[in-house]
Amino acid sequence: MKQFQILERTVVSMVFLVSFGMIGSIYGQIEPSIDENSTVTYPASFFDQYQPYSVNDMLIRIPGINSALGGNGSRGGNRRGLGAGGDQVLINGRRIAGKGNEGSQQLSRIPASEVEYIEIIRGTSGDLDVRGGTQIVNIVLVEAESSTSYAYEVNVDHYHDGKYQPGGKFSATGQRGRFNYFLSGEIEPRYEFRDGFEKSLSLDGGLNETIDRDYGGDSLPSALAANLGFEFDDQNVFNLNFQLTDNDYLSFADRIITNFRVAPYDVRIERDETPTEEGSWEVGGDYMHVFGDGSRWRTLFIINESETDSVRDRLQIDGDIRTKDLFLSNFLRTQERILRSSYVFDVVEEQSLEVGVERAQTILDTSLQLGLLGPVHAVNHGSPRFGGLVPITDANGTVEEMRYEYFGIHNWQFNERMSLETTLLLEESTISQVGDYQRSRDFTFFRPKVDYRFDVTPAVQLRATVEKQIFQLSFSDFTASIDGSDDEQNAFEGNADLRQTQVWSYQTNLEYRLPNDAGVLSGNVFLFRLDDIIENVDVSRGSEILGARGNIGSGQMFGLSLNSSIRLTMFDQPNMLFTTGVRIEEPTLTDPILKIERERSISNGGSTYNFGFRHDIPSINNMNWGFNYRKEFYNDFKVWDVDKIEQYPKVGSYFGWVEVQAQGGLVYRFEAGDNRDRCRNRTRFINGNIATGVVDETEFSCGDAGLKLAFKIRGTF
């Protein structure tokens, strides 16, 4: 193991020494341009030699595109409302008002033939619909009186157990005068089968139990999306977006459990069947009016809803006899209604100001029913609402947040090389809960932000930001919910007293774009100071050990991320692109149970490194091939609960592809990748929690999903 760790560190070091030591030379092709605002522009002709299929095929040829799309961003809570940030992809300079259906979702749907040029916007400006992104990608489409392009893809996925799953996508992009549209539909296979094994050891190392486990699920989700835009005239523009998704599937788990605590040992067979219905819809839109003096008024809205309804039955199997001993029904419905309106105007020539308000309503409805098999002689033999079993838990609740944001964003362009953007935002919100708990609480937060950018040269940019952030609460933590990772824990307690996690974020980023588009080098140093961190806490009642999500106090996380994306022009191979990245995090907090300093749970991130390679060979049927690899390292990757501690081994994942074009413009693509082994070491405690109890057993489990292969055919007309 020690030798492997030394080898791993050596590989990481060599990757960065090589990539940061490469300086590009001039190669013969159309090059992008950098203007006085450090905006990098790639004309469509730059990509002609590759004959790309979609906008996404164009972007992946741009060095450093992952950083431009937010690869260096901070990790934290869920996105709140619309805000000035969010999606860092614009279409024709406009932000698509959506959350599930936003600009980044269009990249594989828009044919490359519709693109006039692509901008990587590295500065800040009052003219932008999105603020605060490290960089913004703007896709500018060709203007035409009347045009329509179609794109399609059919694919077949093959899994390690011999399963084949078909899928397909179809999209239409067009213009009719001042009207433009994107329409798309897709059916994409989502199949998983894992062959797993688990063994449990007692404190003295003796074998307690083994579990031979097969589990997985088979689904074929579908999605329909539409983005419609209409320019009434040069001063008035309206956009409407729509998305509908549907996904009904059955997941299962088969377990052969051998109990070595008794003599002779006992063998029993269990099966879980969990039919699930999922669906969502979203409607978003925006209207912008440009006044005669160039000032703008814009209003955006989003209305969406998603539902998940699952029922888990656990069956004990004895020959032809099936006995249900657990019923667990879980229903979740989330609704959002967001309205944002703002006015942007120039204070003086070099300064602009945006003022506005955002109103957001978020509602979560939950229902959870747990039924267990009672004694044969029991008077209450069960209830139909609990799958015919004895009711144990019947939890219902509704959580609602009503939030208002009042904001002002001041942008000051000091000169051609230096800018400062200052945001002052006041947030007022009310969180109310009805059902098993009756509670209403008011919150007020002041959220300032300062974003400073200095272009040392057009190719070298320094960025520094200080920001107060408020993480979005997961409303499912307010009510009883399911712990799907533990077969022995049926449900998780809710906590009606949760408060939002507050973060002061300090980041400094330096980026260098090598001459002649030879590559991009970037580094980011960050420090996050957190208050009201949410982790698992002890809410036990008497001798019953119970856990829930709760606020545990303060902590911090500091770290460094380095990224490089280099064309191998030093070897006279400009069509070879080598990418590397490493992110090192050091998160600390005080454990609420153990009362010691430790890392945050792995659900909040962790240190990783990655590298990839791409080789385009235009002379051979526009062939391209490559691979990507990613692996965790450094951090413990643990989860601390009330009566158990889980550690997840650091596992690497890979993905590779080969793609060629044939006659008629058809693209044939072959992909191979793994779904990552899921392994876990779990230590269980009894007669108390992880601080006061004693170790009962240690479990070692692992599940292998094997190799996934895919064959795809793409085309446009």
Concise structural overview:
This protein has about 725 residues and is mostly beta strands.
Q: What is the terminal-to-terminal distance?
A: 54 Å
CATH class: Mainly Beta
Percent helix? under 10%
- The gyration radius over C-alpha positions equals 27 Å
The description of the largest β-sheet is: 22 strands, antiparallel, barrel
Query: On the 0-100 scale, what is the average pLDDT?
Result: 85
Count of separate DSSP helical elements: 3
Which stretches are low in confidence, meaning pLDDT under 50 for 5 or more residues running? 1-28, 72-77
Based on the model shown, name its key terms:
717 residues, mainly beta, Maltoporin, Chain A, 22-stranded antiparallel barrel, 3 helices, 60% strand, disordered N terminus
Question: What would you say this structure looks like, in words?
Answer:
With 717 residues, the protein is mainly beta. It has a single domain (34-145, 223-252, 270-677), classed as Maltoporin, Chain A (Beta Barrel). 4% of the residues lie in helices and 60% in strands. It contains three helices and 37 strands. The protein has helices spanning 2-20, 55-59, 65-71; strands spanning 33-34, 40-43, 89-91, 115-121, 136-141, 146-158, 164-176, 179-187, 190-201, 207-219, 222-233, 236-259, 266-290, 296-318, 321-348, 351-372, 390-413, 418-435, 439-446, 449-455, 460-470, 502-513, 519-531, 534-538, 547-551, 555-568, 573-590, 597-598, 608-617, 623-632, 638-640, 644-647, 652-661, 667-674, 678-686, 694-704, 707-716. The strands form three sheets. The chain has a 22-stranded antiparallel beta barrel. Strands 1-2-4-5-3 form a five-stranded mixed β-sheet, with no helix packed on it. A hairpin with a 5-residue loop joins β22 and β23 (519-531). The chain is globular and about 80 Å long. The two termini are 54 Å apart. The model is unreliable at 1-28 and 72-77 (pLDDT under 50).
